[in-house]
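Hi F.,

I've been meaning to write this up properly since the lab meeting, where we talked about keeping a consistent format for the predictions we share between groups. The idea is simple: the sequence comes first, exactly as it goes in, then the structure tokens exactly as they come out, then a line or two of notes. No screenshots and no reformatting. I'm using this chain as the first example so we have something concrete to point to.
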Amino acid sequence: MIIVLKPNVTQKEIDHISERLKEHGLTAHVSKGKERTIIGAIGDDRVIETLPLSIFPGVEQVMPILSPYKLVSREFKKENTVIEFENGVTIGDKRVEVMAGPCAVENAENLLEIAEAVKSAGARILRGGAFKPRTSPYTFQGLGEEGLAYLAETRKKTGLLIVTEVMDTTEVELVAKYSDILQIGTRNMQNFRLLQEVGKYRKPVLLKRGLSATIKEFLMAAEYIMSRGNHQVILCERGIRTFEPSTRNTLDLCAIPVIKHLSHLPIIVDPSHGTGKWDYVAPMAKAAIAAGADGLMIEVHLDPEKALSDGEESLKPPKFKAMMEELRKIAPAVGRTI
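Output, unedited:
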């Protein structure tokens, strides 16, 4: 249920409503917009329907949320959510933020060189996996905490924000200590205990779409995170599995406008995993911006032939720089910047 409050509502009235909801076993999610403050009453519908919410002080209107995902929906929040960071980086605003770096952290020297290259080209967030979920148990699985330490040291030297994947509930605290954004990978999109665990932290979460997940399932996964109090969720379209073998996955760019219609959360696109081939990355990155993406996640490696993970989809720094220059020409056409 959405409780729309009056323009002159006081903090005392907001607190009163929230406390009454909690007394009945409901969760109150307060969202303050530019014009209105609303409270999302989440819980047992039978309990909600028994409460005379419309007569509470400060209440203007009470409306049901019809979609199965409550907090994620446009019904709950009309304005776009913008994720803000201390260094001025914003995701969901006018600027299209670019996350770039190696699929896996391999060593400190290469990571720093890649970070400096992507920063000089315009990226403000460094991606890199310390824990790597691989299809084969015999392939490189990441450096673990050693890799996280390399990421943190690189952030200190370059000023880039860090996004890296967390794979298990027991590792959330460790990864959160080093990373600015917690990434939930495609294979864990419906790992509900992990989603609930990152939902307890007040740190942005990048949620990747599952290999065969519908948009509804994708948004419901985000709901798991937000239901635990963490509203800083960034969605990521990274391609879905279809019958087409020409690319690693089928990059569903239609998901961008669909999600923009259904949800207030920002959405970025990963054309590296979406295509699986480096020469298709730049064209799909351009298309993603044209379709309304709030950001991009791009794999960059100094020597893709020697990469320990996903070398075939990684751009070399000169190719990444050239792509960024092309993106700067396209972004203004849709009212964005790079």
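Notes:
The mean pLDDT is 93.
The chain is about 35% helix and 15% strand.

If this format works for you, I'll send the rest the same way.

G.
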